């Protein structure tokens, strides 16, 4: 059932991080989060350290999933861009390459126009990186490359629960 | 769909608790949440109606420990059980690595159990998954109630294919961790096989 399993190496992570760190600057953003469509946080940057990123990731994915369902009902394939306006902080979410969600949090130091513009470029870069990751994962699985998990034993698994 | 992160040395897996409305899915997660060491768990999120019925999902992130130097994290989700929330159930099932089917042992809930299990099969099949090839365990919950059906009867109806099964009382926690461990084991074994 691993048709779309995501395997990310350090070099991939660095590339992703470089893109989002630049986006923080370019878009004057408070925080940027890259979230897998299934609700797992992949990378973050900005000045929002300490917030509950696990919850943020799972709710972002839920939100995109729900509006994606709505889109189909009204005859759209997807609503790829979402904007939530708050009193101080705003949330901009974009679906990238159909599987990654780019979340930008910004306040009045920035503007929706600027964020839109910068997200477009960063989104395209991220799409490229994730396409590479996907291809690599596919190749590795086809080639039967070993990972730490091909070697795990039932004992390893049981040990997880002994604590 | 597990996520293996070599950069942070983490494996993330998604487990979904499925079953008819009021069978005890949310109660399972609440018990796990209450009994887990604060270092190992994140915040539990419940998107519920005013009357505390699950509206979209409950979510509980859990860290289990290390396996071959990788932190093992499980993201537990529940689905809303009411029939009319089918669209939400489909969304939550996306990318699932393992399923816990929670059955309500009460005799009068047998039809609801069957309906929900059929619905699970259908929704998995829509994603190209086969229930029998998906890591899945079944929990017979509410064994404490006097109107619960005899075990052999439930087994015959809901588990002809012999999935790992557990009797439980989610309100007291009996069987809750046994169920979770069993599905986690199956998910990790699955991970091992697909990385052969
Ligand atoms: N007697 C008994 N009640 C239970 C048990 N598990 C759950 N309940 C109760 O059943 C009701 C519905 O539980 P809930 O977890 O919200 O169901 P969900 O719709 O599957 O999420 C609640 O009032 C629970 O307290 C059990 O094992 N025994
Ligand atoms: Mg519930």
- Sheet with the most strands: spatial strand order of chain A: 3-2-6-5-4
Which CATH class of chain B applies here? Alpha Beta
What is the mean predicted local confidence, pLDDT of chain B?
Answer: 92
**Tally of DSSP β-strands of chain A:** 6
| The CATH fourth-level homologous superfamily of chain B | P-loop containing nucleotide triphosphate hydrolases
Shape by Cα distribution of chain A = globular
Question: How large a portion of the residues of chain B is in β-strands, by DSSP E?
Answer: 25-35%
Enumerate how many helices of chain B there are, as a single number: 5
Q: Could you say which small molecules are bound to this protein?
A: guanosine-5'-diphosphate, magnesium ion
Could you tell me the strand content of chain A as a percent range?
15-25%
Q: Helical content of chain A, roughly?
A: 40-55%
Write a structural description.
- The complex is a heterodimer of chains A (163) and B (196).
- By secondary structure, chain A is α+β, with helices and mostly antiparallel strands.
- Helices cover 47% and strands 20% of the residues of chain A.
- In chain A, strand 5 and strand 6 form a beta hairpin.
- Chain B is 32% helix and 28% strand.
- The mean pLDDT of chain B is 92.
- In chain B, a hairpin with a 4-residue loop joins strand 1 and strand 2.
- Chain B has 196 residues and is α/β, with parallel strands linked by helices.
- Chains A and B meet through strand 1, helix 1, helix 2 and helix 4 of A and strand 1, strand 2, strand 4, strand 5 and helix 2 of B.
- Bound molecules: guanosine-5'-diphosphate and magnesium ion (MG).
- The site of magnesium ion has 4 residues of chain B, from helix 1.
